[in-house]
Amino acid sequence: MKGRFGDYGGQYVPETLMHALGELEAAFREASADPAYQVELQELLRRYVGRPTPLTEARRLSDRFDRRILLKREDLAHTGAHKINNTLGQALLCQRMGKRRLVAETGAGQHGVAAATAAALFGLECEVFMGSVDVERQALNVYRMQLLGARVHPVTSGSGTLKDATNAALRAWVATVEDTHYAIGSVVGPHPFPLMVREFQSVIGREVLAQCQEILGGRPRAAIACVGGGSNAAGLMAPLVDEDVLLFGVEAAGSGLDGLEHAATLSRGRPGVLHGAYSYLLQDDEGQIREAYSISAGLDYPGVGPEHAFWRDSGRVTYLTATDQEALDALHLLSRLEGIIPALESAHAIARLDEVVRATSPGETIVVVVSGRGDKDLEAIRRREGSA
Amino acid sequence: MSRLGTTLQAAREQGRTLLMAYLCAGDPTVEASVEALCAADTAGADVVEIGWPFSDPVADGPVIQAASQRALGHTGRAEVLDAVRKVRAASKAPIALLGYCNPLLNRGLEATIRDLASAGVDALVVADLAFEESEPWRSACRANGISLVPFIAPTTQGTRLQAIARAADSFVYAVALLGVTGQRTEQSASILPIVEELRRYTEAPVLAGFGIGDGKQAATWRRRGLDGVIVGSALVAEMAAGGSGAVGDKVRSIRSELDKLG
User: Fold this and answer.
1) Contact B106 A170 (CB under 8 A)
2) Which of A170, A197, A224 is the endpoint of a domain?
3) Does position B262 have pLDDT exceeding 70, yes or no?
4) CA distance A8 to chain B (A)
5) Whole-number percent of chain A with pLDDT over 90
6) Complex ipTM, two decimals?
7) Which of A25, A62, A72, A83 is catalytic?
8) What's the CATH number where B82 sits?
9) Interface of A with B in 115-144 (CB under 8 A)
């Protein structure tokens, strides 16, 4: 079937959107084969985003774990996270399709900021849907989006978080589909979004391969990234799945996997349909979608990209979890040992280095994606840890 | 002929405009929703449509979202099936079930469709099931004597429209506007050319839904050549304001406007 990763993926959307998905798929295929588009995107990534992002030797962290640890520095990309790789690609496509307006969903606001940035750069209108609870929690990112010229719509329906913001963005898209593109923020949603977003983020994995060739003269032994919807992980892994590299994804275990306060979709969920795709979901016995929870707003989504579901079932990627506390400890560790304050999302990947160490031998190399910088989380961390 | 087929054919022979009335199961209670659906039948609905509440109804506007939220806590699969059985026992009207994919897939697609059929469902309408994904659903429905109702929208084009027309085995659900469910002042005409093209490939009746809230608006669709209308949010709002009596009154007023057209 079309747009599937094994059993997962597909196009579970209202009929109204099917034409736009077909149009998007065609535009994406044409653009992928168009050298002029590729050159334009490469130039933007180089001169605007600042790519390639460095692969930093983490010397003190390496000493601590007795492995050679290299950090893929997406925190140094413009806007402070990998999200910009995707929004620039989609904004270019939007322009190519002759659409003038972007809608986007956002949780913590990182994708919303990246979408607003790309919209500003291309002179597109931008409407960002954000759960009302997240609007409160991430006031600074709301202001950032507004500075960039985007309109931020607080979403009060449901639980007022990312899941509901995604529903609202889909509803807004249905109503304006003729002149509007939905710039989805992760490798989720109906085909072709999971494939397309993975392709835009694959610049991460391609750079890792090239940089490892340069630094190591070969491949790393293992690579690890955090997984919410899973876009930075998919971008890392897609170019590596056919290589002899151990791959690990880390989901948010929140307050712990035994309760309901977590976002460990692949570890604790069951397959089902949400936001256009068949994939693993957090759901109750009735097939109603549950709220996800994590200290990291970028990971608390009750679904996950369908390609991760496929990699999970095939065993190609090992999916682990890290709790809120483990992520916080990892954030402190990286800050003190390397002078890099990672986003709480990325800290989940650092937190499970212990498992990757167990699967590798002394001296072998591990690549960790630092998907974003921690500035956005500092206020929340300061409040939680009660320091002044 | 099936219960639904008989109703559709009788309407065609009598020149009667079809009226499908939607309410959400369990809003505010299973019993109250059953009573109101029966009231809609008595007041002149030809088909009653029972909604299976879902946590993330992306095709629905605020009114039906709120109904879904009100129902969710106490309306699971067992209660939805119970509502269907009770309406089936009390009414002769064909029953359509409106749901979203995930709750329907939850205990296995075939088992769920079998249970819906034995409870008395005649047609299944799945808001987030694109035609491209519908084949396993359609064969499970056929095996159980249920019709899977296909959608057309103002954006439906080309070869897809022909395939959708060929799959229609009862009626076609025409989404009358770009957007989610909920009453509108204006009645967009953007679906009309799509309906016209669809008619070249199928004789199945075409019912317009989304945004139709009163008798005058319903009559507009009859004059535009549609075979019937689907009214949802307006009835859900009546239900919230005045219970089954208000639902019956609203259906009666829509029916009388439609009947004036003959």
Assistant:
1) no
2) A197
3) no
4) 12
5) 92
6) 0.96
7) A83
8) 3.20.20.70
9) none
SS3 B216: helix
Domain boundary among A171, A197, A223: A197
Q: Do residue A93 and residue A125 come from a single domain?
A: yes
Probe site for chain A from B69, B101, B160 (most A CB atoms < 10 A) = B101
pTM: 0.97
| Cβ atoms within 10 Å of A96's Cβ, excluding its own | 16
A190 chain-B contacts, CB cut-off 8 A: 130
Provide the number of structural domains found in chain A.
2
Distances (CA, A) of A23 to A91, A181, B115: 15, 10, 38
User: Is the domain of A66 the same as that of A171?
Assistant: no
B181, closest residue in chain A (CA to CA)? A171
A92 and A65 in a common domain: no
Nearest Cα of chain B lies from the Cα of A14 at a distance, in angstroms, of: 5
pLDDT digits (tens, 9 = 90+) for A165-196: 999 999 999 999 999 999 999 999 999 999 99
Residues A40 and A179 in one domain: yes
What is the distance between the terminal CA atoms of chain B, rounded to a whole angstrom?
25
CA distance A196 to B226: 39
DSSP B49: E
Q: Does B130 touch chain A (CB under 8 A)?
A: yes
In the predicted structure, residue B10 carries a pLDDT above the cut 50: yes
Structure confidence at residue A387 (pLDDT): 60
**In terms of domains, do A163 and A128 share one?**
yes
The per-residue pLDDT for range B16-30, each reduced to its tens digit, is 999 999 999 999 999
Cα A205 to Cα A223: distance, rounded to the nearest angstrom: 10
Low-confidence ranges of chain A (pLDDT < 50): 388
A116/A258 same-domain check: no
CATH code assigned at A188: 3.40.50.1100
Residue B202 lies in a domain: no
Interface contact A12, partner B, CB < 8 A? yes
Residue B160, domain member (yes or no): no
pLDDT of residue A388: 47
Write out the two tokens for A134.
Answer: 């997240």
In a domain, B158, yes or no: no
The answer to whether B102 contacts A2, with C-beta atoms less than 8 Å apart, is no
Q: Which residues on chain A are in Cβ contact (under 8 Å) with B76?
A: 285-286
Range of the domain at A259: 50-81+201-385
- How is the beta sheet containing A151-155 ordered, strand by strand? A151-155, A125-131, A101-106, A180-182
Nearest to A37 by CA among A91, A111, A79: A91
Give the span between the Cα atoms of A330 and A356, in whole angstroms.
Answer: 14
- Closest Cβ opposite residue B156 in set A13, A19, A157: A19
- The tens digit of pLDDT for each residue in B80-102 reads 999 999 999 999 999 999 999 99
- pLDDT tens readout for residues B176-221: 999 999 999 999 999 999 999 999 999 999 999 999 999 999 999 9
Interchain pair B155, A177: CB under 8 A: yes
Q: What is the pLDDT of residues B56-86, one digit of tens each?
A: 999 999 999 999 999 999 999 999 999 999 9
Cα–Cα dist A60/A66, whole Å: 10
The domain containing residue B111 runs over which residues?
3-147+216-255
Same domain? A172 vs A272: no
Active site residue B49: yes
Does residue B166 sit within a domain?
no
A336 plus A271 within the same structural domain: yes
